[in-house]
TrEMBL record:
It comes from Streptomyces triticagri. Residues 1-36, 221-241, 322-343 are annotated as: Disordered. Residues 1-15 have a biased composition (Polar residues). GO terms for biological process: nucleobase-containing compound metabolic process. This is Ribonuclease D. Residues 244-324 form the HRDC domain. InterPro entries: 3'-5'_exonuclease_dom, Exo_C, HRDC-like_sf, HRDC_dom, HRDC_dom_sf, RNase_D-like, RNaseH-like_sf, RNaseH_sf. The lineage of its organism: Bacteria, Bacillati, Actinomycetota, Actinomycetes, Kitasatosporales. GO terms for molecular function: 3'-5' exonuclease activity; nucleic acid binding; nucleotide binding.
Length: 425
């Protein structure tokens, strides 16, 4: 970044929620190069040790980002980690060449980590030993502050007045060596992240929402790793078309076969076979390889030997006893889908309608998305199984039991008490 660009950054920290003031018309400045240039990618222990020392000696928050290869590789592992800290500059680290970054994580453990959409990056960072104790999520801060567009590029432009080039966001980051334009893009992603954090902190403070943000950030940083999803095959796109249990068993067998192949090849499951092909095969219930080859997604791209393993999966599902077939619908704890409430429990449906209206009104008044004010699932659970007596204390206890933060409970409890009281059983 040139001296002129640094001056522009200092003068363009626009801290008006939702974007710049109406009377300010300034053309955004393209941000083309990191201020110290694109750093060399760290790929060996000695270079990593130097980075660890530099970042341990740095000051202030640490901007952190990670690039994955979604759609190309199996899983959500990190293929590049970017960091920036005052006094240390920027660093690009190859976590394939340096798979254990716990030393780096420990060196900056006491610092605040600044991430954009933290919940997307924290799982893959955790896998390589980087676990923060404190974070600041600039995307979530933008939501709480009422910005209509909260992608990193949109936030940097509306708050700081710079344009980030975002053309490489969906590339295959497992590529080696990484092309120079991709590395420039990656370095720029952390170039202004701390500046954005500082501006958003001021804006949240101006709106009286800073403590809310801090509670949210603490909840993300302290959350345990998500458990493995139960029956992930049920999330196959188009699954709603599959209604018979035997057909569901075919989906399950084909999904598990695909997952095994994708894991072994280290490729995205969608590159092995698409969801649409799995669903079509389940509906067709092919009797043999020749019939399977007529199913869209199988015949045109697979060799006979490959078709045989897919047909074997279909045959395994056909041979299962009825007792081993999956049950229709995913058994999940909690209330049923709201569309069935009117028939199953009209009083609960009335409570939910009143509660949703109340939450909508509050969210609009606070200029933030409803789901950030209180999660829809929490509202549904409260309305399906309300406390025996809807008092502020009992409602607050239910909300806290479902993970609502203190600020959320304070904002919505009075209105939810009123909504529940207005719709008695």
């Amino acid at each position: 970044m040139t001296d002129a660009q640094e001056t522009a950054a200092d003068s363009s920290l626009r801290t008006t929620g939702g974007g710049p003031p109406d009377d300010v018309e300034t053309a955004p400045t393209p941000l083309l190069e990191p201020r110290e240039g694109v750093p060399e990618v760290i790929g060996d222990a000695d270079a990593l040790a130097d980075v660890i020392s530099a970042f341990a000696a740095g000051t202030g928050p640490v901007a952190v980002d990670a690039e994955r290869a979604s759609g190309y590789r199996y899983g959500q592992r990190a293929y590049l980690v970017q960091l920036r800290r005052q006094g240390a500059g920027s660093a690009l680290i190859d976590p394939i060449a340096c798979p254990d970054l716990s030393g780096l994580g420990a060196a900056i453990a006491d610092a605040e980590w600044v991430l954009h959409a933290a919940t997307q990056d924290l799982p893959c960072l955790r896998e390589i030993g980087m676990i923060p104790s404190r974070i600041f999520d600039t995307e979530l801060a933008g939501r709480l502050a009422g910005f209509p567009r909260v992608g990193l590029g949109a936030m940097v432009e509306s708050v700081l007045g710079f344009v980030l080039e975002k053309g490489h966001s969906a590339v295959d980051w497992s590529t080696r060596p990484l092309p120079d334009p991709w590395l420039r893009y990656a370095a720029l992603d952390v170039e202004l992240l701390v500046d954005l954090r500082d501006a958003l902190e001021k804006e949240l403070d101006r709106q009286g929402k800073l403590d809310w943000g801090l509670q949210e950030f603490d909840a993300i940083a302290s959350a345990p790793p998500a458990p493995p999803r139960k029956d992930p095959w049920r999330r196959t796109s188009g699954m709603h078309k599959v209604r018979r249990r035997r057909q569901m068993a075919v989906v399950r067998e084909l999904w598990n076969t695909r997952d095994h192949i994708a894991r072994r090849r280290d490729v995205s499951p969608g590159k092995v076979i698409g969801d649409a092909a799995i669903v079509q095969a389940a509906l067709a219930m092919p009797a043999d390889v020749q019939a399977l080859s007529a199913v869209s997604g199988f015949g045109n791209r697979l060799r006979p030997r490959q078709l045989e393993q897919w047909q074997a999966a279909v045959d395994r599902a056909k041979a299962l006893p009825d007792s081993a077939l999956p049950q229709p619908g995913q058994q999940v704890p909690g209330p049923p889908p709201p569309r069935s409430w009117a028939d199953r429990d009209p009083a609960a449906a009335a409570r939910l309608a009143a509660a949703k209206a109340a939450v909508t009104e509050i969210a609009e008044g606070l200029n933030m998305p409803q789901e950030n004010l209180i999660t829809p699932d929490t509202v549904r659970r409260l309305c399906w199984e309300p406390p025996r007596e809807a008092t502020p204390e009992s409602v607050a206890a239910v909300l806290a039991g479902h993970g609502a933060r203190r600020w959320q409970i304070e904002q919505v409890t009075p209105a939810l008490v009123t909504a529940l009281a207005a719709t008695p059983d």
